[in-house]
Amino acid sequence: MVLPVDKIYWESFRTFFKIGMVTFGGGYAMIPIITTEVVDKHHWVSEEELLDLIAISQSCPGVFAINISTFIGYKLKGNKGALCTSLATALPSFFIILLIALFFHQFEDNRVIAALFRGIRPAVVALIAVPTFNLARKAKINLSNCWIPILGAMAIWAFGVSPIIVIILAGIGGYVYGKYIKPTE
C-alpha cells in the first residue's frame, strides 16, 4: 500500500510507537509484533528482509529495538523516516521511565507491585523464546546446524568469549561456507 508522503510518516510513527509500548521483554519480545505490523499488515519489508534486518540490528551497537526501527524507517523514507521511526520507538520507554522515576519511591516497598514484577518474569521469558524459535525456523536452523548457535552461546556463557568475537567468527564462517563449501542450487 502506497501512502502519500505525509501519511507514511504518521503511519510509521504510530506503528513504531505502538511497538515501543511493548518493550517489556526487551527488543526481542517485540519481534512478533514487528513481524505482524511491518511484514504482514503494512508490507514495508518481506520476511526475508526482516530476518536480515534483525541480524544486522543485533550486530550493531545500541538498543536492538531502536536499531531495527531505524533500518525500517530508513528503508521507507531515508533519513527522515529513520528519525521518525526511531523517535517513535524510544518515546514510550522514555515516558514510562519518567513516570516510574517520578513515582517509584511511593511503590518501591509495596509487596503487591513486587509480586507483579515477579509474575511478569516468566511471561517475558516466553516473549523472548517464541520469536527465537520462529527466527531459527525462518533462518533454516535445524538439527544438522543447530550446533552453531549452541556453540556460540556456550562460548559466551561458559568461557566468557566476547559476543563480538562470536559474531565475527560466525560471519567469517558463513561467508566461507556460502562461498566455498555450500553446493550451488
Describe the overall structure.
The model has no long low-confidence stretch (mean pLDDT 85). This protein has 7 helices and no strands. The protein starts with a helix and ends with a helix. 22% of the residues are buried. The chain is an all-alpha fold.
Helices and strands, in N-to-C order? HHHHHHH
Low-confidence stretches: none
- The proportion of residues forming helix, as a percent range, comes to over 70%
How much β-strand is present in the residues?
Answer: under 5%
The first-to-last residue Cα distance is: 33 Å
Q: Give the biggest beta sheet.
A: none
Structural category: mainly alpha
- C-alpha Rg, in Å? 19 Å
What's the total helix number? 7
Number of strands: 0
How would you describe the shape? globular
